[in-house]
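Risk mitigation, structural track. In case the binding assays with pyridoxal-5'-phosphate fail to produce interpretable data, a predicted complex structure has been prepared as a fallback.
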Amino acid sequence: MNITKKGKFGRFGGQFVPEVLMPALEELEEAYERFKDNPDFKKELDYYLRDFGGRPSPLYHARRLSEKYGLKVYLKREDLIHGGAHKLNNTLGQALLAKYMGKRRLIAETGAGQHGTATAMAGANLGMDTEVYMGAKDTRRQRMNVYRMELMGTKVIPVTSGSQTLKDAINEALRDWVSNVEDSYYLIGSVVGPHPYPTIVRDFQCVIGNEVRQQIMEKEGRLPDSIIACAGGGSNAIGTFHPFIPDTDVKLFAVEAGGSGLKCTDKAALHSASLSVGEEGVLHGARTKILQDPYGQILESHSVSAGLDYSGVGPELAYLAETGRILPVNAEDSEALAAFHELSRMEGIIPALESSHALAYLAKAADSGELGDIVVINLSGRGDKDLEAVLEKVGQL
Ligand SMILES: *Cc1c(COP(=O)(O)O)cnc(C)c1O
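Fallback model:
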């Protein structure tokens, strides 16, 4: 086991990985430092984000929602990005980085298939061999996403070991990376994992917050009073928040899927609220806040939204929550479902279930005054992928 101080956010982050992974991480860190400010790299990435991805995404004044809640609500429309979510910002960035590093092959793992699909898009577009590990159980539950990836030329590898879900897929992807590191790039889907991934993924997702800043200045001539984003691993949240961290008048709310918030001590009831009630531990190569039992065993998370169903959270968010700069809050499944229906009806936008948690916090907090007068909500994705899950849930109610 190798433990370094690099890539720390306070006590969080770092590199807690087997020695065999260190050369690969060092090569990645060195390459990222070399290319991140390279004008050719930046120009090419901007081009793909714009002409392939559809950036910039609009900042939309949700007029009817604003009227209902008595404050001005803006939605950052990541649901309009190619693929229907913010995930492409990251997969395009990392796939291009891989290309600049001289790699010809992308490896990724996926749970429900959303990150795998976004990786498949970037891989096909940049002409790279792409292989995605997916728990065998998940391949059966998510047949359409498997087919989507295959349509785009990605090889989906079902993982039959262990519980046949995401954590087993992660193990297999890492094993592949270690043995094929000369020509292969491991593309992580959120601000998690060992350094330098949390920094790399954050930087690629900061395009969201940078655009918000420019757009809100154009529309309002000032910064918003608060920004709300949902947090699974935390990539859309940190990407939206990060450019505003020095602006201490802007409140930053990270909404996790879970029960009754900070006061709740029954972790099993908290679904996946690792920021609010998680404890410190090491998960997937980094020290962060995770859901674990008193013996350090990782607790399975539970949420209606696949994208929020993760037992940990990015180390930088854990740090920012601890220092009080971001405010971790919660929305329950039922609250997210109500928000899902409300936005669909009132604005003609069907939000992803993940994003519905951010919307739900508006409904919960609007009356308290804590949000101020101008609120930006990051609409991380569209909800077309969730219709079956919602139908099932509504049937159960
Ligand atoms: C994957 C996903 C998320 C959760 O991932 P983060 O890394 O926390 O952003 C949120 N919203 C949507 C639409 C997603 O697809």
